[in-house]
């Protein structure tokens, strides 16, 4: 509020508040994934269709702090409490739930545990809950660990200009587990690479077989994954391009929750598609990536590239 008043005025702030009151409090994806800001209601028996009945446009932090004496006021109090829980609550590792004042400055937001989330998901036949409301270092976090169920997803990298956290977004396939794509908003080397990605894609395609063989050597258990540090080393050694691979990694691939990279999926994103006239074997193409030039020699065909997500 203070920032809005300083940069604009009270009228603009009031307009923001009026618009926000009409924004949805949650989204359902494919009838199985719930997306919201903070968390779930304290009443685990609350059904998703109950959320449609709450008067979203009447939400006001300064009102309905007590149940009141009438049936109408008690109903409004319950509706506002549901909205506040959804907008401002946080997960914690202990079972059950307890009141929490973070986020909205209200004593009736909650911290909710894995058992509470499980009950809510079973009641509403959900497979996953995606929420934000917490700045996490990697841009995403599974607060309940191996239990899964709920993931924190935070898209604002380097939050407030000082947090030095990664931002992240998810790709959710119709079948299979979600992928996480991390990024950092800086004026660093990764930004320079982003403007030259086509050249880097071309180098990856040219050395795709060598990369696959080297990754397989580091994966004796045939898990199709390698550690992020091994991925960085292989990219450096095989492509012979001096880059900070850790910083540009989010531009090229996704990271698994256990901080590994599925190198099969990574390499399958980069394909040759179509050809043009043949070229002499001695022709070389130079790909400039963030000031580093890699000579790609002995190519028979021009390579048309795309990265499939």
Automatic annotation (TrEMBL):
SUPFAM superfamilies: Metallo-dependent phosphatases. Keywords: Manganese, Metal-binding. The keyword Metal-binding applies. Its cofactor is Mn(2+). It comes from Aphanomyces astaci (Crayfish plague agent). SMART domains: PP2Ac. GO terms for molecular function: hydrolase activity; metal ion binding. InterPro entries: Calcineurin-like_PHP (IPR004843), Metallo-depent_PP-like (IPR029052), PPP_phosphatase (IPR051134), Ser/Thr-sp_prot-phosphatase (IPR006186). The keyword Acetylation does not apply. It holds the Pfam family Metallophos. Residues 1-187 form the Serine/threonine specific protein phosphatases domain. It comes from the Eukaryota. This is Serine/threonine specific protein phosphatases domain-containing protein.
């Amino acid at each position: 509020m203070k920032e809005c008043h300083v940069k604009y005025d009270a009228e603009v702030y009031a307009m923001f508040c009026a618009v926000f009151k009409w924004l949805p409090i949650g989204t359902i994806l494919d009838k199985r994934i719930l997306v919201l800001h903070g968390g779930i209601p304290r009443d685990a028996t609350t059904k998703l269709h109950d959320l449609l009945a709450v008067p979203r446009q009447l939400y006001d932090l300064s009102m309905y702090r007590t149940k009141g004496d009438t049936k109408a006021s008690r109903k409004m109090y319950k509706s506002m409490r549901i909205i506040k829980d959804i907008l401002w609550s946080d997960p914690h590792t202990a079972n059950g739930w307890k009141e929490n004042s973070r986020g909205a400055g209200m004593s009736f937001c909650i911290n909710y545990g894995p058992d509470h989330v499980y009950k809510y998901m079973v009641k509403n036949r959900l497979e996953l809950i995606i929420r934000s409301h917490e700045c996490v270092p990697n841009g995403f976090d599974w607060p309940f660990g191996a239990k899964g169920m709920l993931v924190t997803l935070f898209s604002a990298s380097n939050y407030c200009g000082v947090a030095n956290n990664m931002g992240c977004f998810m790709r959710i396939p119709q079948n299979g587990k979600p992928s996480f794509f991390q990024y950092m908003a800086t004026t660093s080397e990764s930004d320079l690479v982003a403007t030259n990605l086509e050249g880097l894609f071309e180098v990856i395609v040219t050395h795709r077989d060598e990369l696959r063989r080297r990754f397989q050597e580091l994966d004796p258990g045939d898990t199709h994954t390698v550690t992020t540090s091994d991925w960085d080393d292989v990219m450096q050694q095989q492509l012979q391009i001096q880059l900070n691979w850790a910083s540009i990694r989010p531009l090229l691939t996704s990271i698994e929750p256990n901080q590994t990279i599925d190198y099969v999926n990574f390499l399958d994103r980069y394909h040759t598609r179509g050809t043009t006239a043949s070229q002499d074997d001695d022709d070389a193409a130079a790909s400039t990536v963030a000031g580093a030039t890699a000579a790609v020699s002995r190519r028979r065909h021009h390579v048309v590239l795309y990265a499939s997500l």
